Amino acid sequence: MGPVLVFSRPVGSNHGVRCASVAAIQVIIGGVNPRRFSTLLPLLLLLLLPIISTAQAADPSIDVAPPDLPVYEQPPIPQDGFLWTPGYWAWSDDIDDYYWVPGTWVAVPQIDYLWTPGYWGLIGAAYIWHSGYWGPHIGFYGGVNYGYGYGGRGYQGGYWRNGHLFYNQSVTNVGNTRITNVYNTTVYNDTAVSRVSFNGGSRGVQARPTASELSAAHEPHVAATPLQRQHERAAHGTPALRFSANYGHPPIAATSRPGAFSGDGTVAAKHTGTLSFVHQPAPREAAPDAAQSRAAAPRELQTRQSARAPPQAAPAEVRSHEIQPPRAPRAPPQTRPNPPPRPAQPPPEQEQDHDRR
Measured over all CA atoms, what is the biggest interatomic distance in the chain, rounded to whole angstroms? Predict the structure, then answer.
């Protein structure tokens, strides 16, 4: 009997998902001369090295579809300079289950950087997790609608200008936090709202990266911050956040700060709804310049102003019809008098007499 190579898969991984990596190689030798095998071992390792390297470099994957995104309210921003990072479903081999990583506000690690969320993508029969990253532009995140500015393309929750973050109050919960660099731009969804949390396949989001998103993927990146990684580990260690325990309605769907899973800053998932959106701010929070506000959100603000404006007077013809008595029937149209009849032809004798004259 020749040598038999047995590959064993690790119980867990640093990514918390099933990986196609080889954790150990057990060589069982039966009926083989050890000297002969010792000469073959370097050759076997040389042949296995590309396989092992490729498997370890492969993206984490799982053969179970991630659950739909839960519906939740965004907690208020704790302070200026924080950016919203939406929640997502992560996988762990240790518990053999998905668990919810709550959405949270994170301090931006570098000026002019924005967060591109991670997403699950179906490739063949495997769901592969693409990790999020910080960068100067928003890249592709599978077209998944995470809400609160992450509608599937780009980020409508804010932008950088002169080293300061400006927040869009229509999709960002500013709350009572003292932040002056705000604006109002209504975000419209032209496509049907979906809570699907992965890209690809017949049930997943049908989206492909644009040229600008592909370009953003090659820009300088910063990985998730230490607080973000700690936040994910804390979610992994919270049994109530596992899908088998909450069935898609995690009791901690969002939190105001990473790792803070108790207190006033935590928000539970709703059991009904289709999307996560922030309510429009009160009129006192609107921008002071009315003309600028109308330019930022023309359809919604103008509609509200029209609803508050007093009703306009009815047209003149309608008023006259309502306050005046009915008109008398019109007289029949006058006709021209018929012309007098032409004289009849004179008798023959009169014509003769007329000729003689």
Answer: 164
